[in-house]
Amino acid sequence: MPRENPHRPFIPNPEQMALAPEVTGNAINGLGEAEHRRPSVVYWATNPDDIPHGRMQKWFYTVDPGSPEFGEERAKRMEISQAPLPPVAPTPTQRNPEDWTRQLDQFIANGLCEKVGVAAMNPDWVYEGGKVSETRVIIAGVQHDYDRIATAPKPEAGAEVMVQYTRASLVAKRIAAWLQEDGWAAKPVTGPMATSFTMIPAAIEAGFGELGKHGSIINPEFGASFRLSAVLTDAPFAPTPRKDHGIDAFCAACRICEDACPPYAILPEKQTVRGDEKWYVDFDKCLPFFNEHQGCGICIAVCPWSRPGVGLNLAAKLARKASREG
Ligand code: SF4
Ligand code: SF4
After folding, report:
1. Which ligand has the minimum distance to the alpha carbon of residue 282?
2. Whose CA is nearest to atom 8 of ligand 1?
3. Are 215 and 298 within 8 A, CB to CB?
4. Ligand 1 and 212: CB distance under 6 A
5. What CA–CA distance (Å, rounded) separates 214 from 224?
6. What radius of gyration do the chain's Cα atoms show?
7. Residue with the nearest Cα to atom 7 of ligand 1?
8. Which residues, other chains included, contact 44 with Cβ-Cβ below 8 Å and sequence gap of 6+?
9. Is the pTM of this model over 0.90?
10. What is the pLDDT of residues 159-200, one digit of tens each?
């Protein structure tokens, strides 16, 4: 029997729902479309007036989170994003691809992030109408403080997300600065308003983990409790390998996040989305709750992989089972 959900029934605020556009977010995302196409920006547009859900995006900012941390973190992130990068040095440093990738570990060692990876850029990740010419995408992951994210959907969890977006933006900026000083042009890309390309498939390709039923990546070490940022460059980094831990099959047999999601947004079965079969969160059900709670995060917090110390044991157990089954 699933545990009783303290946030159900959820009745969306009518003032917010009056701002919903005619087109659904699921249609923009390509739910049910068998043909392959590039993604379209559905939310967190740099300019909300550019997207159908822009009025809902603006409404998000009218909700008082009741914590000064939100404003403070937004201000810090703005300062980081506006700080200039050093100029590109005239002579590009030459390293072999594996050395380039190994050098990224310095950003973990100095505490700026908890994970790094590299993928060869795939044009299918670029948003419709966008353009990315760089050949490599470096992904950095920053872990949430689990005790804070476990308070979701209270404002403390949303504030923790803001803190980690600030860290994510700082590490992307530092990686880009390092590359430019080494003679390679680099563009930092930071969420949530990362509107040049979609980061989740790039991070999966770079070995960050697998897509969970709740629509976030699950990594054995950090669960789903982390944020991403990226750097685009032509510096010849060796891609880091994609990794399979058996999480996809685990999700098929688990429904903790489905039961915990107040608006029933997490779909129990994989869906066809722009030609691919994958786990999918109903955007139009999630968004009103997300907006009213300044970020929600319940699905990330309840996922068993997110609990400290649990994910690595689960991954080891799944690996033993897979090897027994040949
Ligand atoms: S809670 Fe369960 S079903 Fe949901 S993402 Fe985590 S492991 Fe998968
Ligand atoms: S973030 Fe969205 S999908 Fe996740 S629990 Fe909250 S409402 Fe549900």
Report:
1. 2
2. 251
3. no
4. yes
5. 9
6. 20
7. 251
8. 57, 191, 192, 193, 194, 195
9. yes
10. 999 999 999 999 999 999 999 999 999 999 987 777 799 999
